[in-house]
Every structure is written in structure tokens, then in C-alpha cells.
Design goal:
Structural class: alpha/beta
CATH architecture: Alpha-Beta Barrel
Largest sheet: 8 strands, parallel
CATH superfamily: Aldolase class I
Shape: globular
Radius of gyration: 22 Å
Strand content: 5-15%
Distance between the termini: 54 Å
CATH topology: TIM Barrel
Number of helices: 18
Helix content: 40-55%
Length: 403
């Protein structure tokens, strides 16, 4: 039989150590987040449904994003053991600049809608983490204001060609004058994708007050208080808008853009030029031949053409075709440091992240993005160690197999 007795006070003492209580509610909330999925769950609780669905959703039946996530889920790593991984180097070189981590924060529109601190919060956190941040043409912070807020950051600019070419030329001139390091030209939005969650939610820019949003506001009072008591949500690069995202894209973006327009962009932008939205190896060759410094294999996070190719699966062939002439980046579906390591092993220069940092921003503002960078840095370093690799630059295709 088991004999029982009460523990003595001396024996109980080490078991009763209470964790210090964090007074700051945001820090306390974020301390329990260990993955991008955890940040997403917090964001979902704290943000109105229409805003969360704008970030979380994709086009039509959302097949593209599910496929991308499934490929990342089902890939296989091939570790090698008995290597000295007491230290690991997570830095890499992108477009001639050394960065502390091998990812880029992608251009996303309307960022102040997700949290009132918006693009500035993301850029400052990116600056501290040593990763590039890409301000969108559709951003809610001005080109010059963002550069001033993160003067030591790796600031990139996400550019759409508008029907109004004179306004596009003015934006390019401002970007160059503000010292941005790279231009990311997005080319996969000749028209807006059919984002059905937004349509069903009655989502618009700015959010409209209705019985539905008022009811939702009762469930998310902090978001609405911030929205109604801070600077009005405005686009920084053009006049205000009051309709759906799809209508905005159809109104603003030039569907006649062709390969020859890269030469037009080059008249106003002399720095590194990355073309985002490439979905075939042939198109990667075309833009490389036209002088692009980089391509982003991307289906816009599944938000444009549904059932498009999974960008990660295109990395090996694209690197083989153009890797000697331009850098190959990839996005869509990435939600962990291990995902990023897999893309690098296949030959990608870096990974662009969008939803991940927007979840973090919704979960906790600038502190939330800081927490995301901590999570990803830890996951990347741990994955390198477990693969038996002590530097990002040592990854090879032998370390991973796609499903």
C-alpha cells in the first residue's frame, strides 16, 4: 500500500512560487502567445468580425490559401545530426542588404484599420528586429511620415500602377526622395479579386456604422473606442474612399499594365526593383529579362485568382531559371519560422509575410508585432539547430522535400 503524509512547509515552499503578475494587460495577453495561430486567436477575439475577416479571408472559395497551407503542413524536413549548433546565424542578405532575419513584412493596405497605431507600429517593430517593412500604396500612413518614424529601418515600398499615371509618377518620386531601399511592384491585381467574406459582411473603407456593426461594436468596445477617438482613417496617397475593396481596386488600378511598363517605372525609380505576383516560371523569366532585381512568387495570399498555383512549389524551378539574375522571394500561407526555413532551403532569398503581422498588430499593436518577431526568431533558430545547420546560408534543397 502507498503510505501518505502531508508535505512539510519546507517541502511546499518551492512548489508555491507564484509567477509575477504583469500589470500591463497587453503584455499579459501576449505572453500567452507562442505561435502565429495564438496571435490569430487573440486578434479574432479583439477585432470586429468584418475587420478580422478582411485580413483572414481570401478570394471566392478560398481554395488557394488552403492548398498553400497544406503544402507547408505536409512537407518533410531532413535533419543531419552531430553538428556544432551551439550558435546559429539567422541573418541573410536581401537585395544587397544584410538583415537579421530572413523575412520581409509585405505591403498591406488600410493597416490603421487593424489597429490605430497602424503602419508606424509595424515599421518600428521591423526596425528593431532588423527586417524590411514594405509600406503599401494603399497605406494609411504617409510616405514621408513612415520614413521619419523608422529612419534606421529597411523601408521598402509596395507600388501599384494607377490609371492616373501622373499621380503614380509623383508617388515614385516621393518614395525615392524619402530614401526607401527597394520598390515592390505588385502586378497581379488588374481587377480586384472576389472576396466573398467582405461582401457578406458589408465591409467597406472606412467601416460603415449600421445595426450590424453597432452590435459587433458592443462585443469589441476597445477597437471601436480607438477607431472613434484617434485620427480618422484616411489613405495617405490619395483622396478618401467610401466603397468596397474590390470597387476601389477596379477604380484605381490600371489593368492595361504590360511588361514594357517596367521601363516606365525605371524612369522614376533607380533602386532595387522587385516584381510581386509572379505565378509561372515563364513570367519570372520575362521580368528578369526586363531587368527586375527580384521576383515574388505570390498569388496575393489567395486573395485574387482562386485555385492559383501554390507559390512555394514554384521556388525550385524559378531559382533554376532566373536565380543567377535576380532574387526569388515567395509568400502565401507562411505562418511559422519552420515554414520560412523550408522556403530558404528550396532556394528562396526570403519570405514575405502579411497576415502574420496583421494578426499580431490586431492582438497587441506594436507590442504584438514585437512578440511575433520574437516567436519567428525563436522558431527559425530552433529549426536550424534541429536540422543540424548553424546558418541560414547553409540551407540546401537536401534539407526539405515538398509533398
Amino acid at each position: 500500500m502507498t503510505s501518505r503524509r502531508l508535505l512539510t512547509p519546507a517541502e511546499l515552499k518551492p512548489l508555491l512560487r507564484l509567477a509575477p503578475f504583469e500589470l500591463d494587460g497587453t503584455r499579459r495577453r501576449l505572453a500567452g502567445a507562442y505561435t502565429v495561430g495564438d496571435l490569430r486567436a487573440i486578434a479574432r477575439r479583439r477585432t470586429p468580425r468584418s475587420v478580422f475577416d478582411y485580413v483572414d479571408g481570401s478570394a471566392e472559395s478560398e481554395v488557394s490559401i488552403r492548398r498553400a497551407r497544406r503544402v507547408l503542413r505536409d512537407l518533410t524536413f531532413h535533419p543531419s545530426v552531430l553538428h556544432d549548433v551551439s550558435t546559429v546565424d539567422t541573418s541573410t542578405t536581401m537585395l544587397g542588404t544584410r538583415t537579421d532575419l530572413p523575412y520581409v513584412f509585405s505591403p498591406t493596405g488600410f493597416t490603421r484599420m487593424m489597429h490605430h497605431s497602424g503602419e508606424v507600429a509595424v515599421a518600428r517593430s521591423a526596425q528593431r528586429a532588423g527586417v524590411p517593412y514594405t509600406l503599401s500604396t494603399m497605406g494609411t500612413t504617409g510616405i514621408e511620415d513612415l520614413a521619419a518614424a523608422a529612419p534606421d529601418g529597411h523601408n521598402w515600398f509596395g507600388f501599384y500602377v494607377w490609371k492616373d499615371r501622373a499621380s503614380s509618377e509623383e508617388i515614385l518620386s516621393r518614395v525615392a526622395a524619402s530614401g526607401y531601399e527597394a520598390l515592390v511592384l505588385t502586378v497581379d491585381v488588374p481587377v480586384g479579386g472576389a472576396r466573398l467574406r467582405d461582401n457578406r459582411n458589408g465591409f467597406s473603407i472606412p467601416p460603415r456604422l449600421s445595426l450590424k456593426t453597432i452590435a459587433d461594436g458592443a462585443m469589441h468596445p476597445n477597437w471601436w473606442i480607438d477607431f472613434l477617438t484617434t485620427e480618422p482613417l484616411r489613405f495617405a496617397s490619395f483622396d478618401s474612399w467610401n466603397d468596397t475593396i474590390e470597387a476601389l481596386a477596379n477604380h484605381m488600378f490600371d489593368p492595361s499594365v504590360q511588361l514594357e511598363d517596367l521601363a516606365w517605372v525605371r524612369q522614376f525609380w533607380k533602386g532595387p526593383l522587385v516584381v510581386k505576383g509572379i505565378q509561372t516560371v515563364d513570367d519570372a523569366r520575362r521580368v528578369a529579362d526586363a531587368g527586375a532585381d527580384g521576383v515574388v512568387l505570390s498569388n496575393h495570399g489567395g486573395r485574387q485568382l482562386d485555385r492559383a498555383p501554390v507559390p512555394l512549389t514554384l521556388v525550385p524551378a524559378t531559382v533554376a531559371a532566373v536565380g543567377d539574375r535576380c532574387e526569388v522571394f515567395v509568400d502565401t500561407g507562411f505562418s511559422s519560422g519552420a515554414d520560412i526555413v523550408a522556403a530558404l532551403a528550396l532556394g528562396a532569398t526570403g519570405v514575405l509575410l502579411g497576415r502574420a503581422y496583421l494578426y499580431a498588430l490586431m492582438a497587441g499593436g506594436e507590442l504584438g508585432v514585437d512578440r511575433l518577431n520574437e516567436i519567428l526568431a525563436g522558431q527559425i533558430a530552433r529549426t536550424l539547430r534541429l536540422l543540424g545547420v548553424h546558418a541560414v546560408d547553409e540551407l540546401t534543397p537536401e534539407h526539405v522535400t515538398l509533398p
